[in-house]
Design goal:
Elements lengths: L5 E5 L29 H12 L6 E5 L9 H10 L5 E6 L4 H11 L3 E5 L5 H8 L4 H14 L4 E7 L8 H10 L2 E7 L6 H7 L4 H12 L2 E2 L9 E4 L7 E4 L12 E4 L4 E3 L9 E2 H6 L4 H22 L12 H4 L2
Parallel strand pairs: 1-2, 1-10, 2-3, 3-4, 4-5, 5-6, 6-9
Antiparallel strand pairs: 7-8, 8-9, 10-11, 11-12
Helix pairs in contact: 1-10, 2-3, 3-5
Bound molecules: guanosine-5'-triphosphate (GTP), S-adenosylmethionine (SAM) and iron/sulfur cluster (2 copies).
S-adenosylmethionine (SAM) binds next to strand 3, strand 5 and helix 11.
């Protein structure tokens, strides 16, 4: 069992996109009030006093859309400067990167994962509910120019929608040092859509890419579950995140903290989460907070294998945008 050293931290539950795979079709989500969201000061306290001392020293900022939260760049700066923090990264839809990539880099961020589900602006609009392809593409260029490395592009593969674009998206890794990752569509966020559409197995995608370009094993820095390959001679790599066709729970090294302070031991497990915000706001000491997190850490191996689905009877209470992916 690997050490649990990676926390996915959701900065905000809101998003300026409406991706069909991530949110319910009617877009009806109850959003958190500002007072319910952990403040940056509270987050920094938890990171410095609770998570880092327990060996959790890698942090990924996600959301909703992390960059729509006011002050996100300042928070990145403060987080990168905290003693004991080994790695900070971000997952974003890229909409605000054109404006913010340089500031984020100066603040200390070096790794970024950007969602890009299509190279076709119309299909992109159909998937994300927003006609922002050109702005996102410019954002990706800005991130590339300021020097983000690794720069990863996330594609959720949707049957009949962007599936046919997989070879073209994979080809983005040839000329540039970009790491394109294909994610199997999971039944969280929009289960009705998932049931109607189904998902595509990573091995099917690898076969198609192998036939067109060839494919070899490779490596790329990261803390996540992707299996990494490379088109021979390419500057970047291809990652496959195969949570539907493979079980990678034996390598699971992470916890998730929602914007309102719920710490969950597994993406799929809603019943074993703890409410750190209420503890923090009712005067619980740092030592007691560490004990609460330690309880989750001690239970984690068991949850990975046997209890990850417990408490999620059919439909998940929270969407991916609320959990942070
Ligand atoms: N089932 C499952 N899916 C995960 C897990 N971690 C990441 N994923 C999936 O992979 C997607 C992309 O993850 P990213 O936010 O880009 O981060 P990552 O791949 O963990 O990060 P690095 O490897 O550090 O770059 C997530 O949105 C999920 O769909 C996990 O622990 N379990
Ligand atoms: C929830 S988003 C949050 C960060 C940011 N808004 C973005 O889109 O990159 C994080 C990741 O979750 C992935 N995701 C969302 N819903 C998913 C689903 N149903 N199945 C697989 N991945 C999903 C997205 O593609 C994205 O890479
Ligand atoms: S995947 Fe990201 S950009 Fe798309 S709706 Fe979900 S949170 Fe927003
Ligand atoms: S399903 Fe849960 S235990 Fe398995 S890899 Fe994902 S977060 Fe970890």
């Amino acid at each position: 069992m690997p050490a649990i050293n990676y926390l996915r931290l959701s900065l905000v539950d809101r998003c300026n996109f409406r991706c069909s795979y991530c949110m319910p079709g009617d877009g009806e989500i109850a959003y958190l009030q500002r007072s319910e969201i952990l403040s940056y000061e509270e987050l920094l306290f938890l990171i410095e006093q609770v998570f880092v001392p327990l060996g959790i020293d890698r942090f990924r900022l996600t959301g909703g859309e992390p960059l729509i939260r006011r002050g996100a760049v300042g928070f990145v700066r403060a987080l990168c400067a905290l003693p004991g923090v080994a790695d900070v990264s971000m997952t974003t839809n890229g909409y605000l990167l054109e404006e913010l990539a340089a500031d984020l880099y100066t603040a200390g961020l070096r790794r970024i994962n950007i969602s890009l589900d299509s190279l076709d602006p119309e299909i992109f609009g159909q998937i994300t509910g927003r006609s922002h392809w050109h702005k996102v593409w410019k954002g990706i260029q800005s991130a590339h120019q300021v020097g983000f490395d690794p720069l990863k592009l996330n594609v959720v593969v949707l049957p009949g929608i962007n599936e046919s674009e997989v070879p073209d998206l994979a080809a983005l890794s040839v000329e540039r040092n970009w790491h394109v990752r294909f994610i199997e569509f999971m039944p969280i966020g929009n289960t009705a859509y998932f049931e109607q559409s189904g998902w595509v197995n990573s091995e099917t995608l690898r076969t198609r890419i192998r036939e067109r370009f060839g494919l070899e094993a490779a490596a790329c820095p990261g803390n996540g579950p992707a299996d990494i390959f490379r088109i021979p001679g390419a500057k970047g790599t291809l990652g496959f995140i195969s949570q539907m066709s493979e079980c990678f729970c034996d390598r699971c090294n992470r916890l998730r903290l929602s914007a309102d302070g719920y710490l969950r031991p597994c993406l799929l497990n809603e019943s074993d989460q703890i409410d750190l915000k209420t503890s923090l706001r009712t005067g619980t000491s740092a030592a007691q907070l560490r004990d609460q997190v330690k309880y989750v850490l001690d239970r984690k191996p068991e949850i990975n294998f046997r209890e990850r689905d417990r408490g999620t009877t059919g439909r998940y209470g929270r969407t991916m945008s609320q959990i942070g992916g």
